[in-house]
Design brief:
The complex is a heterodimer. By secondary structure, chain A is an all-alpha fold. In chain A, 79% of the residues lie in helices and 0% in strands. In chain A, helix 6 packs across helix 8, helix 8 packs antiparallel against helix 10 and helix 9 packs antiparallel against helix 10. The longest helix of chain A has 35 residues. Chain B is built from twelve helices and no strands. Classes of the chains: A mainly alpha, B mainly alpha. Chains A and B meet through helix 1, helix 4, helix 5, helix 8 and helix 9 of A and helix 1, helix 2, helix 4, helix 5 and helix 10 of B.
Amino acid sequence: MPARAGKLGATLIDAIIPAVASGLLDLLALEPPGWGGNLLRGLVSSVEIAVGAYVMGLLIGIGGAYGKLYGGPVVRDLLGLYTTIVRAVPELVLILMLYFAGTDLVNRVLIAFGHQAVDINGLIAGIGVLGIVQGAYSTEVLRGAILAIPQGQVEAARAYGMSPGLLLRRITLPAMLPFAIPGLANLWLIATKDTALLAIVGFNELTQTTRLAAGATKAYFTFFLAAGALYLALTLFSNVIIGRVERWARRGMPSLTETR
Amino acid sequence: MAETPAVAAVRKGGGWLQPHRIVLISIALAIVLASIFYLRWDWLPAYLPLAVQGIWRTIWLLAVTSVLGIALAIPLGLAQAAGPWALAAPARAFCTIIRGTPLLLQLWLLYYGLGSLFPQIPWIRDSFLWPYLRQAWPYGVLSLTLSFAGYEGEVMRGAFAGVPKGQLEAARAFGMRRWTAFRRIWLPQALHRALPTLAGETVLQLKATPLVATITMVDIYAVASRVRQDTFITYEPLLLLAAVYMAVTGIIVLAFRRLEARFPARVG
């Protein structure tokens, strides 16, 4: 066995040394012969899509949560249908459907109104598709958070004669925030990782760029590990920010840790 | 707490079948009928055997990776909840890395990365595993299993930590050995706590399975893609695909609901 292990070590070193010799750092260099610049550009477009999709999801989520809680019976059922379908069908399938159907629909509308068919910008399409997916999850998170607000606060606001808009802005949104932030933080992390799925429809975000780089140089391990490190760094950085935001949103409330 | 309209409707005894629902259901039926008659389904008979095989493969993949993943997640969770630092730190690092990177990237790292490394190592090429390692499915199973273990390890950590201390102290007072106490008290109560989360996570795992189509495994998603490439029919296979996934999701949710009902409602 030791001989075998030694052999394995030797082959591993044989496999790795040439890679190092040919310049691992050259492969990841920021200048054009290296692919580092491309990876970083991929990361930037991943973050752009994630931010766009997240914001769009939040807007859908606020509307959806209000509709589910206070809307009429038809609105509630339709929203229930939306959240159920989106949460039951794989993102990959939804992305393909919305990508094809969405661009097709926009072009048909454009042609019907006498315009030229356009190529939909990949960034916009990606944001739209992931935003619709995120919206379903945000709806559920925000609905739960609004239900968790102590009812006396809302009643007090009504007793003060606040209009519904003012009530939303001054009471409901700030009061639900501490309940919503863990779920919303999770959704942000999911959004950053779901951008990788756009590689399937050929959008040049981080994962797709990595695959191209790896395919061109045959250094699969190097590039996939590098991309993994970038995603992980994004997640860890997000976690730090989320921790701060959570502390800010929960200011003045009893500590969450170990209340049991 | 003011009632939401939904609660109020149920209270009033309106029940599930209200007038507006009948209208909505008939609209939905009309849409389904229209899609049956106006969309193209003539490709279906030719691809039906392949589709059935694909559905079977998807379910097989889901079952195998979930069971293996849970088996891995229990020690991962236990190590984080109660293990010494030397075990807890690697377990936490594993969960963080798995949860911090996209599954697609993990899958491609294993398939393309390991797949390109293995042929360079002679004793792997000579071993009895080599015929399997040249296929795609071991990499798909491995990466889906590790991913499930990473997410569930975190869930199980919370579940183990959430079992009341008194339960374990009572077990010790009864003179149970540590293994017996773990097997009879700690693990069942932790699993009971984790069960509602596990139902959701299993649905998420189902939704992760189509990714294996990108490494040439032929699951139901890959079958739909093939129909699209062969016949240039775009929407119909995707609609059918969505219906299949919704059906499987429904089955998973129902199965977990029955499983939860079999447990006693109050533990601890």
